Amino acid sequence: MTTTSPSGDSVHTVVIGAGYAGLAAALSLVDNGTDVLVLEASDRVGGRVHSQRLDSGVVVDHGGQWVGPTQHRLLAAAERFGCATFPTYDTGDHLELWADGNCRPFRGAGPVDGPGVEQYVEATEAIDKLAVTVDLDNPGATERIAEWDSETVQSYFDRTVDDADARRRLALAVQGVWTVEPRDISLFHLLFYVASAGGFDQLMETAGCAQERRFVGGAQSVALAMAERLGEKIRLNTPVTHVEHSADGVRVDTDRGPVYASHVVVAASPGAAVRIRFTPTLPPSRNRWMERSPMGEVSKIHTVYDRPFWRERGLSGQATVYGDRNVGVVFDNSPEAGEAGVLVSFAYGDRQRRWAALPPAERRADILATLGAIFGDEATNPLAYTEKSWPEDRWAHGGYAANPAPGVWVEHGATGWRAPCGRIHWAGSETASVWNGYIDGAIASGQRAADEIIAAATP
Q1: Where does FAD bind (predicted)?
Q2: Is 432 among the annotated ligand-binding positions?
Q3: pTM above threshold 0.85
Q4: Which of 49, 202, 315, 373 qualifies as a FRET site for 147, CA 20 to 30 Å off?
Q5: All domains in the chain, ordered by first residue
């Protein structure tokens, strides 16, 4: 990889963004014999997936980190490049902390006799029944899209779930997966997302589901291997400011000079893509789609210990937190051999905004107080503490994904979601039909965009 872009380059396809979508598009094109140049604004590849090796040698994932058994594209890439995985630690009791200070052990979705569990399960089963009617390849053809895209998830829960504790469970589920509040997204977007994953439990559970395995070298290890394969075709520290496009080709402007190409794949984070200037202006539906699909709000906080002490007490390290605390979910993020103990805490939506507004010392104290309430005093004295606030990331502008506001799917989805705009093609996890919002979906989107370009070149 290089860190400069000489003036006046000419290639067949420019890919904007070296996250998993951009890397997958570039690899597919290179495998097809197509000349490619990837322009990445930041100083690294991986996008919203970022692994860091701490001074102790422990690797922590600040962004996306898990892979499930049905995420075939990510698993195939990991196999291609020899990136090993290991099972997420899932042995023992999970815990849930309620506002009254009661900390209950549970397995699965929640304690059998826990507050609101019965109606929570009924509600998720009802969601699954609705989700199977969504047309994933042509969402606009879904029979009830206008009805469902006109209702927020919050109003749907208020209308269909009587038990307040069940609604609290459902709200945390929405915060944890979509990193927004239930009021922020439509019922249709929730159903589409659930359908793209293969069911509600696929999004929530560990064994056999989206959180089943982790990467030995961190989730960025696959992206780094993909980038090594692409070599000098990737240029870092090269943000794109302007794309000029016509029937004859595209010109991509950076502060290091222009690049001319036949096609361009925009695989930047939606939060970054919306800030690129296009001449002529993009079609209204594409503009509206980007403008009305804000990035989610999430922070990940890692605390490192000399050992995973919670396992000694028969605990999995997984916890859910209800009430006014800023932490929503906790996972055991220790390395495979358990030579160190690592807990990762998540703050989403309203919780994230409250927490991020605190001074650094108060943020740390807030996280440790919650971990202490769940796991005891030992959790309040970590050897290391790190935090990553994705809304403050210069190029991602949030995470995990962008979420179209209520009404956007029905108003602009047909041509604004991922339809090419002439020689401009769109990639990114948000444009995937399967595993939308996940690394696997990002890879699928890049491969689809590459296929569009390859098809366009076929006589």
Answers
A1: 40-41, 240, 430
A2: no
A3: yes
A4: 202
A5: 9-47+219-294+402-457 (3.50.50.60), 51-69+85-90+210-214+297-392 (3.90.660.10), 116-204 (1.10.405.10)
